[in-house]
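Suppose a colleague, Dr. K., hands you the sequence of a protein chain of 476 amino acids and asks what its three-dimensional shape might be. Before reaching for any lab equipment, you can write down a predicted structure in token form. Begin with the sequence itself:
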Amino acid sequence: STVFTDAMFQDLKWLCEQHGIAGIAEVENAAWNGGSLHLAKRRIVSEFIKDPTLGSKRLISMPDRVTNTINVVTRQQSLYRPPPACRPSVINNYVGDLSSREVWWERWKLFMFQESVAVRTRTGVDVRTPVGMLELILRSKYPAVTEDEERMNIPLQLLCLAIFDAVILHFMNKLSPDGVWQVAKARICDKLYVRKQAMTLDILAMRYGEVQVVCLQEVAAVFEDEFRQSSLASTHELVCPAKLDGKRDQNSFILLRNDAFNMSTVYEVTAAVASCAESPGGIKLSDGDLLAIDVEDVRGRRFLIASFHGDTNGLLTVPLVSAICQVARTQFPHHQLLLALDANVYERPGNDKKAFADFTREIAALGLTSIWGDQPDVSRCRTTCSARTSLQPQLNKAVRLQDRVERSDMNPKDTILFFREQFQMVHPEEMNSELQRNPVKDNTGRLEYLEASVFPTLDFPSDHGIVAVALHAVHG
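The predicted structure, expressed as tokens, is then:
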């Protein structure tokens, strides 16, 4: 290849050998210079970027997920919040010089093999190199991976990721040799990444500061550090799960307003729900997906509050909700249940995805209702509208600009659930403001939702809209 050369492969081989990464010699013979992959001789678009087998084997997307953007922390306790560490690549928030392949390659090698980063894990702070964070891609989970590929998995991931980054860089510098693309990228990175946590907290503080319970999903662990320095910390308490997700760095959090709840009564009961859900024949939860707490408000009422992020296809959502209902009725019979979730359900399901209609029917059978009602108009319930560009490692999922709305992920994924006998929605006539809707959808940060509008945007940093509701208890 003239884009990723043999000299570059030899650099990679030497670094793997220096760091004790087994299998690189086998990769050279069975994947680079020969074998079924024979990567050295492939065309960069038709035979590499568009090769569906590389996607099914996760040889690019898996190492990209781990090293794309690493949320780092200080090694000693400190108020300082260091910026994330990004792999030198076009497709992420790296803002260094990418003007040439040579400059990029030197930075890529240093980042992957020599730069140590401190990350927050479930056991505390751990110091690692990015290459040391890569995980095996097992045949048991991804059957497309061959026995040979599983054996030489780590160096093969490194090679495929390096080739991918080199190819995408080649595209951009070919299309925009004056570097204008990097100027545009820097602006996007500042808004949607560098300032993402701060923008999120600003929106919550300015628009939702009076809300008594705020549930968040897919939150980076460093959000806690940002929260402590925000104005929201003066009005709310942040509750984090005891077990944070140390791999994907996607966690469910809960914010409670100080003047509404007795914070000394907060007690995490995630383990009780997980035990019920994971009973023989049940589901397996990942750390950080669920946070469930028992808490008492200032009026002495007990609440069971849960924040949950479902799996990509939404197949675990109803079993988890069912487990929460079972725990609520058997272990917390005198508590009022509030469950906020990214259900990951779909308006037009396919490929073993959970249908919104089925989800609505099944939660109703559990005695639950949602902010959308028991027979919702799905067009009012959509909370996502996002589409992948070609600057990401799964090109088969890329969407052309002119198709960005029609082919977007536009689905009713986010909702708030409660037992019918416990809560009712406040009627619009009872709201303090004549203009306030109930429930609220928001993808602008201004208490309004623009339908068929792709987000995140430079003003709204999330790819899920905010949903909010005013409820009153049926009995006191």
